[in-house]
Amino acid sequence: MTSAPSIDGFNWDYAPAPERTRPDIASEYGLFIDGEFVEPVAGKSFKTVNPATGRKLAMIAQGDEADVDRAVKAARAAGGRWSRLKPTERAKYLFRIARRLQECARELAVLESMDGGKPIRESRDIDLPLAAQHFFYHAGWADKLHWAFAGCQPKPLGVCGQIIPWNFPLLMAAWKIAPALACGNTVVLKPAETTPLTALHLAKLFQEVELPPGVVNIVTGAGETGAAVVEHPGMKKIAFTGSTQVGRHIMHALADRDISLTLELGGKSPNIVFADAAIDQAVEGVVQGIWFNQGHVCCAGSRLFVEECIVDEFVAALRERMAKLRVGDPLDKNTDIGAINSTEQLSRIQSLVEQGQQEGCILHEVNDEALPRRGNWHRPCFFTGVEAAHTIAREEIFGPVLAIMTFRTPEEAIRRANSTPYGLAAGVWTDKGSKVFNIAAQLEAGVVWCNTYNRFDAASPFGGCKASGFGREGGRHGLRAYLKLAGGVA
Ligand code: ADP
């Protein structure tokens, strides 16, 4: 299942390190409306499965328009009191949620890995701490909004419809719910159909901290449920994270409505490595950039541009590092690359990899250990011989697949990096500070990481430009997206 690095002819394998915590998973989950778990009006449900085993984890209620309507009514009814609550009191609820998240972190991390397929090390060390951080951070803002937007009389928008994807299920819920609540809004959240469990367990924490009923409502289901959230006339804001295709559809659907909208969509982010970069550090960053969370990251550094004079050295170092990545059981603490979230996503990755080969790109798969027989797996791989016109250099793959290209001058690197419809993130690797600032300023991306990659913080705004969407999440910019401002410019 996992690779056993061979050193001096011996197989030095890690001892298995299975996660022992077992979360309490109910056999079925209702919708979370007005502070209670309720049956969906039409009585329909669907199953959520563990992508590492293919086994069912639970049955999940399938919400439809009538359920979304119930949720919006509950959110609207709760909105008056919640928005008028003293901001310091709102902050207390957010602090309580953050603390409960920390207390339940282990169980939620395991649940996240079981439902989504990501390695436990990631859900434990990244998703959960960041989710709690977002609630802590926004608790701090709740009573300081008039300082954040001085002279602008910040007011909540009302009921916010929030639709999230499957790559960071709990973290995305926290990113969206925490700022909305801090600003005095109420929420109807629609988790992704393949990863609803942690959001539903978050709802249990809301009950425990006695968050007033209706302030957050969670309606599970697939695309039609999401569409019902978007189309409900009671929504004052839609915040969506997901594919560019669905984002475009949402923009069309809302074109003639007076509604606030933020979209965080796909990406095909470039990582640019100059010859003067610290090579080992850059290799590690590139690995982080593309093979983190199986490449299920909208800002994954999926296009690597290496300065031509170091490409052989760089690719050799990358290959060596990649051979040590361990693919396998997400609940083993040694695992680097877990399961692909769904069979549909796996087929999409496989077909793009096949297309890359058909178009003449050279596939490098270093890790050849047997993969588990059940579940959805894809070995990390990279392509060389890639040109800008190749499909794998243009289309978002959302899997552990890297396309390597070269450049000769900084101008060429910038031009090639920007030559994509997307504009979510980028990475620059060099030891020259002036080059960092010069290049970063010319990259068309919402986020540019310098000598690092995939770093997130609640205080740091995240979001894209071009086909990667608009609006920011995190920091003061993220708050702005949940407020009406009057009487000034912010
Ligand atoms: P991905 O390709 O990352 O799965 P999607 O855009 O398909 O991204 O899904 C992201 C979220 O959007 C999920 O919660 C999904 O159920 C929801 N969704 C899918 N189709 C629609 C739609 N037409 N309107 C609103 N939400 C949708």
Please name the defining characteristics of this protein.
490 residues; alpha/beta; Aldehyde Dehydrogenase, Chain A, domain 1; Aldehyde Dehydrogenase, Chain A, domain 2; 7-stranded mixed beta sheet; 6-stranded mixed beta sheet; 16 helices; 39% helix; binds adenosine-5'-diphosphate
Describe the protein:
By secondary structure, this protein is an alpha/beta fold. It folds into two domains: 28-265 and 466-486, Aldehyde Dehydrogenase, Chain A, domain 1 (3-Layer(aba) Sandwich); 270-450, Aldehyde Dehydrogenase, Chain A, domain 2, CATH 3.40.309. It is 39% helix and 17% strand. The protein has helices at 65-84, 87-103, 105-116, 120-141, 145-148, 169-182, 197-208, 223-231, 244-253, 279-291, 311-322, 343-358, 391-394, 410-418, 433-442, 475-480; strands at 6-7, 10-11, 28-29, 31-33, 36-38, 45-49, 56-61, 155-156, 159-163, 186-190, 216-218, 237-241, 260-264, 270-273, 303-307, 362-364, 381-384, 401-407, 425-429, 447-450, 469-470, 483-484. A seven-stranded mixed β-sheet has the order 16-17-18-15-14-19-20, with helices on both faces. Strand 14 (270-273), helix 10 and strand 15 form a beta-alpha-beta unit. Adenosine-5'-diphosphate binds at residues 163-166, 190, 192-193, 222-223, 226-227, 230, 242-243, 246, 249-250. Adenosine-5'-diphosphate binds next to helix 8 and helix 9.
